[in-house]
Amino acid sequence: MSQPIVVVDAFAEEPFTGNPAAVCLLEEPAGERWMQLVAREMNLSETAFLHPENGRFRLRWFTPTVEIDLCGHATLASAHVLWQSGRLDPGDAARFDTRSGLLTARREGDHIVLDFPTIRERPCEPPPGLAEALGAPLRYVGRNPFDFVVEVESEETVRDLRPDLERLARVPVRGICVTSRSHDPAFDFVSRFFGPASGIPEDPVTGSAHCCLGPYWGERLGKRDLVGRQVSARGGVVRVGLRDDRVLLGGRAITMLRGELTASSIDRV
After folding, report:
1. How far apart are CA 32 and CA 34, in angstroms?
2. Beta bridge partners of 5
3. Active site (annotated) includes residue 46
4. Above 90 in pLDDT, residue 138?
5. Is 232 part of a structural domain of the chain?
6. 166 and 59 in one domain?
């Protein structure tokens, strides 16, 4: 039996922007080896796999090389697919059991809002060679359970980064998130995210990084509701709401492709 697969641009303002995620809506659990092979075949930042479980959905995310613990854009894409496919009614919340606990998504007009955990960074010494690998002076360096968070002096610095990805791949974290204030009053901050150690040279839009960027900039700007723009080549916008120990991440989703994995390619073991 063939397996439907959908590609969705998440946190996208228009087609061919945001972060494309592949979504496999399964009827039952699949083997890790098969999921990793499918993610490698899709060769996107993340491929999401979900199936019904106990009245909710079990959700897992894979880069082309590893399974990860938390992903925003592929969760947003998964909720979008559930509503578009009719598996959930438009007014129902999507509820996902994941390696990071229960995550939910709801629709608000043309946006999807994710309810994610707050992930705070702590100041730390930069690993040796980080400034040289990024090619820019570092104003601040912090670390959370997943990533290094680096503030640099300006949006232009963020946009102009041409990092040494081979050197960054030796930093033992999921990724390096580089950020600054935005010079555009429509946005509070900008960022880019490099994850070569996780098989992602540069992630187009990283929802989960905003679980840290939101609190980071919220404290500095004295705001509870912010708008971040990830200034990758594709670009994307993430609306961030700070609510106690939770972060609300809002963005749009656009279905770009519907297809199927052929029966001969499926070995779910």
Report:
1. 5
2. 259
3. yes
4. yes
5. yes
6. no
Q: Which of 28, 46, 67, 121 is catalytic?
A: 46
Q: Which residue has the tokens 């009614």?
A: 89
| pLDDT tens digit sequence for 1-25 | 689 999 999 999 999 999 999 999 9
Q: Looking at the 3D structure of the chain, how many domains does it have?
A: 2
% of the chain at pLDDT higher than 70: 97
Q: Domain containing 60: what range? A: 3-106+252-265
Based on the fold, state whether residues 188 and 90 are members of the same structural domain. no
Query: Which pLDDT belongs to residue 264?
Result: 54
pLDDT tens-digit series, residues 41-89: 999 999 999 999 999 999 999 999 999 999 999 999 999 999 999 999 9
Structure tokens given for 258 = 């519907």
The alpha carbons of the chain give a radius of gyration, in whole angstroms, of: 18
Q: How many CB atoms lie within 10 A of CB 202?
A: 19
Mean pLDDT of 165-181: 96
Residue 69 Cα distances to 62, 99, 138, 248, 260, angstroms? 9, 5, 27, 18, 26
